[in-house]
Amino acid sequence: MMTTTPGATPSAQAVQNAMASARAIRPAHAELMTAFEKPLAIRAGLSDIFRGDAIPLPDVRPDRLAQGAAVLMDDDLLRLAPWLLQAARELLPVLESSFPNGDAFHAIATSVATGEFALREKVRALLDGDSATISQSAEAIGVQDGFLVLALQMIAGAAIAGLAEQLRNELAHTNWSYGYCPVCASAPGLSTLSRKDDVQVEALIGGGGKKYLHCGLCGYNWRFKRNACPGCSNDDPHSREVLYAEKAQHERIEACSKCNGYLLCVDLREYEQDPNFLAHPLALVHLDILAQGKGYAPLSRCAWNSFS
Amino acid sequence: MPKAFFIDTSRCTACRGCQLACKEWHELPTNKTKQRGTHQNPPDLNPGNYKLVRFNEHMDDIGVVRWNFFPDQCRHCVVPPCKEVADMILEGAILRDDTTGAVLFTDKTKQLSADDAQVVRESCPYDIPRRNEETGLMSKCTMCFERVTSGMLPACVKVCPTGTMNFGEREAMLELANKRLAEVKKTFPNAMLADPDFTSAIFLLTDAPENYHTYAVAAAPEPMDRKRFLAGLGKPLRRVFANLG
Fold it and tell me: What is the pTM of this model?
């Protein structure tokens, strides 16, 4: 039976375990991982709860998907309203206690509780990349934009991840060849190269290496062509480069000089176990620093890969 | 959670990718070799080869020539005799990491005399450790400790194209080994797992162990115990001499 305590679900535990392992491997990132551990664990736990909660699902229309229209494009998000409120109630106090300057999250929570803050509309603005609306809202509450964006990403991420899980089977039968998420149209936060395939030949195991993109907001993953930039579809090898540490070639920066974007990629064929896709980006922040030092911008901007 | 290799020799085609990957990852020196009429090259494990695919050819009872391949390496014993013996001579020369189960030879092995190193070598029922005669350093497979503790697969496992080399949680590898054994036994009724309870490198063999390698499985316990007994006998004397300066 599914527990209703977000911090005790299997996904929440998996985030915590992954953070503990990652801290041992990358002690330099320990402080960062510790700060985000609880919020990300609760976010994962909420997704676990939401995936088992029946709501009216949006239509998955192959004709719209074929034209690049994500499922939640133009959706009023009314179906997600209860989840968004629950996520806000659970996550904002955790965010407040996880960061030294967490007062901003308290202000956001107060605004949500009093109904002044139309959460659903702000999440819509986040999905639409409407930074003007976000800025105005932040100003109205008296917090910096970054705090509001982080809060909205966490809240929306938890709710849409639950929805994405409910849509997964239906979406699996559709074709989606774009570099943004078929559920929420957000940019990918991480890409992976798949494990070796079972080729059904007794003495041969091979293949794998297929590129999958993982949504930076809801975590949905989908196949994407390996030889192109997810940001601009540029497939010219002369304007794309791969950067990695010599002894860690399985963790790499894939950068595109055409759109000036980059996306981190991990090769699962090198890993003993699949990394936790919610926690792992925090173990790769050194690559973000390197990429941004070279003038590239992340395809998916979030709190831990935005450096001033 | 301790880790283990599962080495399914029934799938091995002797491509030697594992041998090469090991050498490359550890940046081990090259060997001077010559044609000796066998593909087994170099002829034996040495300080520059922690992994060696052994070739063995023999004719079975019904006149069929069997060519067996054995990707030899340290078994990372659950209770490693090499460590027990080394501890009596110089603590810290050989360590066992409880988390992964890796048995690790440290730089301290350089401080072992040639005779002591030989005692350590002889304590291994699988004839694995080797000593660099110039530096005194003893070495062998490290379970790619730095890779494994970073969440990666050992180099030999990563590169294996046939599914011979497998690595993971010990329980999972034992389960896989038993599942694969049941499958292989349909074709090779005498198939067996080599010392699965005592080692962290579990070999699946389709033929008698001696048809792979002299040390494919541990010898009967008596010789090993005797070696350990003899090594233990010297321990108090060594300590006394050490204290006398």
Answer: 0.84
Q: Are A270 and B161 a contacting pair at CB < 8 A?
A: no
Which helix (H) or strand (E) segment holds residue B120: the answer is helix B114-123
Amino acid, single-letter form, for residue B184: V
Distance from CA of A244 to the nearest CA of B (A): 15
For the stretch A122-169, pLDDT in tens is 999 999 999 999 999 999 999 999 999 999 999 999 999 999 999 999
Provide the 10 A C-beta neighbour count for residue A100.
Answer: 6
Distances from the Cα of B126 to the Cαs of B195, B214, B218, in angstroms?
11, 8, 6
Answer yes or no: do B13 and A203 touch at CB < 8 A.
yes
CB contacts under 8 A, A 248-277 vs B, are 248, 250, 269-273, 275
| Antiparallel, parallel or unpaired: β B130-131 and B192-194 | unpaired
CA A235, A236, A239, A242 dihedral sign is positive
Query: Which tokens is B177 given?
Result: 């080994």
Q: Residue B139: enclosing H or E segment and its boundaries?
A: strand B138-139
Structural domains of chain A sorted by starting position, each given as residue range(s) with its CATH number in brackets = 12-298 (3.90.1670.10)
- DSSP-derived pairing of the beta strands B138-139 and A248-256: unpaired
Start-to-end CA span in chain B (Å): 42
Q: Angle at Cα B44 formed by Cα B40 and Cα B45, nearest 5°?
A: 120
Q: Which residues pair with A241 in a beta bridge?
A: A255
Strand-pairing partners, residue A240, are A256
Residue A7 clears pLDDT 70, i.e. is over it: yes
Amino acid (one-letter) located at A73: M
Q: Which residue blocks in chain A are alpha helix, DSSP H?
A: 10-25, 30-51, 62-66, 81-98, 103-113, 119-128, 131-141, 145-172, 280-283, 285-293
Measured between alpha carbons, how far is B175 from B122 in angstroms, rounded to an integer?
31
CA neighbor of A28 nearest in space, from A236, A222, A279, A282:
A282
Judged by CB atoms closer than 8 Å, whether chains meet at B149 and A25 is answered as yes
Q: Which two tokens stand for residue A225?
A: 């062509």
CA-closest candidate to residue B89, choices B122, B111, B121: B111
Chain center to CA of B37: 25
Bridge partners (DSSP) listed for residue B193: B204
Q: What is the pLDDT of residues B56-85, one digit of tens each?
A: 999 988 899 999 999 999 999 999 999 999
A115: left (phi over 0), alpha (psi -120 to 50) or beta: left
Side-chain half-sphere exposure of B152, counting CA atoms within 13 A: 21
* Phi (first) and psi of residue A192, to 5 degrees: -135, 155
